[in-house]
Design goal:
Chains A, B: It catalyses: an N-acyl-aromatic L-alpha-amino acid + H2O = an aromatic L-alpha-amino acid + a carboxylate; an N-acetyl-L-cysteine-S-conjugate + H2O = an S-substituted L-cysteine + acetate. Two copies of one chain form a homodimer. Helices cover 26% and strands 26% of the residues of chain A. Chain A is of the alpha/beta class. In chain A, helix 1 packs across helix 6. The longest helix of chain A is centred in the middle third of the chain and has 22 residues.
Chain lengths: 337, 337
């Protein structure tokens, strides 16, 4: 790829902003409710006018939201694989499986031309991760440009781009239903709690994401650059009692809250409940994240580890209508300026 | 009360340390499990010997612990009123009501001479409260001396004594089953998460509490002094939508995490989800605590407010056997040195 090439990409006409995919991650729940209120007010006050982007606001798991729980029967955000979405639905199917198919109808169908152009799914974590975009791709220029724009905006919250290197057909989360998509994950915030600073950071993130989409749709060439991408390498579980499977150690105090600070071999990893220090035995220094995330105790994840690399992203602009028609007929989508 | 008087109090022969009264407050769960493990090991390694104090270790709500939830059907820590403990038990009684009666049999009966001498019930909060002892009395010298001892110990965690001014017959929490009792409440920690620093602070608190009980039982005169007591005055709920009852504001960022910092009239209290600041309209400066505690959203409490006053506590010593017998027969228990 040469730096002077501009990649032309289809217009982002429909964007979904989803909150409450996990019902006790409250920033997204209250932000989507607030945006719904604003939308209602705007509709009452103004004439309907042609918008540069249509925003679909979704409360993903209303039953879990009502109970302020992550999920009712099973984790909704693991239900969006092709296999699950296209499989049969028995009478005893868990609520979240039914709901995932409803959401796929509303925002997808996943993988089809009818799917929304971009899904931004709002999440919170108890880990000290700041604002992260989590995506399945390290070469989705829409996701990476959105991130680059957020990072360039004035905010006092640290931002990172996390890449889960999962094959497209195995992608499982709500954001995978859109043509592009990411989770916007912000912490630290206890689940079941809303903290003003985290809510404000999420509001900021969503507003700047939508601003960027409008800017992109306006036809301006958006210059390229570099983005640090953290690609997930592996998860580490808590040390556990072999009989009871109960955890026998917590994250070491020297590691707690130090997400994205390089973890070196022999650095303290856990502190057992009797006071002993357990060290990181990996051979490669890696970047820890999701350190002590509440919801991952049941998934057997005490922290995840990532490799960091710098990704060059090209200049992009939105396709003209003619280009889009040509592209849909199978012609190329890159041009030289 | 004159300063040179020494108050003689009955021996503290049996102390209960309880964890998991709320099943997702994990420091107490893991600490009690660790202490049970140590107890088992000590029993295997040593001859049974006469202990200066007998410690009963309890996991209060095993079913909630297993599910990592605060409670299964109803808040166990509101089930210990005399009325509830002595009322009938229907077939459809919630689990926690059944369990409260079991615990009353094990540690009480509440109000009887058979009750354990001291209950230390371990709790966590998402609020930035440090270590607090919460008790129903501001003149229970055992509770206040324990607190004074903890505060004098070397620890980098701030400590406060909170007094809930509830009539004895209305006391509702597990710690009210003992002759003396308090909750040891430590935060900030998200529910469902265990943080090393909070676990270590709790371990420190329990060890020093037990050290003090042994010291008291040894017969030494323990000198008096002063303790700051925060007496709860009132609770404040979140602003709510009149139709949906959903909250429409979060704790203001200038108040969040500032537990026990004096709140003055007109100080910022909430920030609405549209960004507006709501101020404290009370006329008296008061001390906020339990600011943004996760479990109190459902109870309609955004924060509690307290008045602070300095309480003088007398020197105490344990009664001799003769004194204890005399005291049980109705004679006085104060002496001049």
């Amino acid at each position: 790829m040469e730096v002077d090439k501009v990649v032309c990409l289809p217009r982002l006409s429909r964007v979904a902003v989803c909150g409450g995919t996990h019902g006790n991650e409250l920033s997204g729940v209250y932000l989507v409710r607030e945006l719904l209120k604003e939308e209602k007010k705007a509709m009452e006050e103004e004439e309907e006018e042609e918008k540069p982007v249509s925003v679909v606001l979704v409360l993903s798991n209303p039953w879990a939201i009502q109970q302020c729980r992550r999920y009712v029967k099973t984790d909704l955000n693991r239900c969006f694989t092709h296999a699950s979405l296209n499989g049969p639905l028995s009478d005893s199917a868990p609520y979240e499986l039914i709901r995932s198919k409803e959401l796929n109808t509303l925002l997808g169908p996943k993988g089809s031309p009818e799917a929304v152009d971009l899904v931004c799914d709002l999440h919170n974590t108890t880990a000290n991760m700041g604002l992260c975009l989590i995506a399945y791709s390290d070469c989705d220029w829409i996701c990476l440009h959105t991130f680059k724009h957020l990072q360039a905006s004035t905010s006092n919250i640290p931002m990172r781009y996390i890449h889960f290197d999962v094959p497209k057909e195995e992608s499982y989360s709500l954001d995978s239903v859109g043509k592009h998509g990411f989770a916007m994950e912000i912490g630290p915030q206890p689940h079941g709690v809303v903290r003003s600073n985290i809510y404000t950071a999420m509001k900021f993130g969503v507003q700047h994401m939508l601003d960027w989409v409008r800017f992109f749709n306006s036809g301006t060439i958006i210059e390229g650059g570099f983005v640090d991408v953290f690609t997930m390498v592996k998860h580490i579980d808590y040390p556990r009692d072999s009989e009871t499977h109960n955890i026998i150690a917590a994250i070491h105090p020297q590691l707690q809250d130090r997400d994205f600070c390089l973890l070196h071999p022999e650095d303290p990893l856990f502190q057992t409940f009797s006071g002993e220090t357990l060290r990181y035995k990996g051979k490669e220094p890696l970047y820890p994240f999701f350190i002590n995330e509440c919801a991952y105790y049941e998934k057997g994840i005490a922290l995840s580890l990532a490799r960091k690399r710098r990704v060059m992203i090209p200049a992009i602009r939105v396709q003209t209508e003619q280009e889009q028609q040509a592209s849909e007929q199978g012609f190329g989508s890159e041009e030289e300026e």
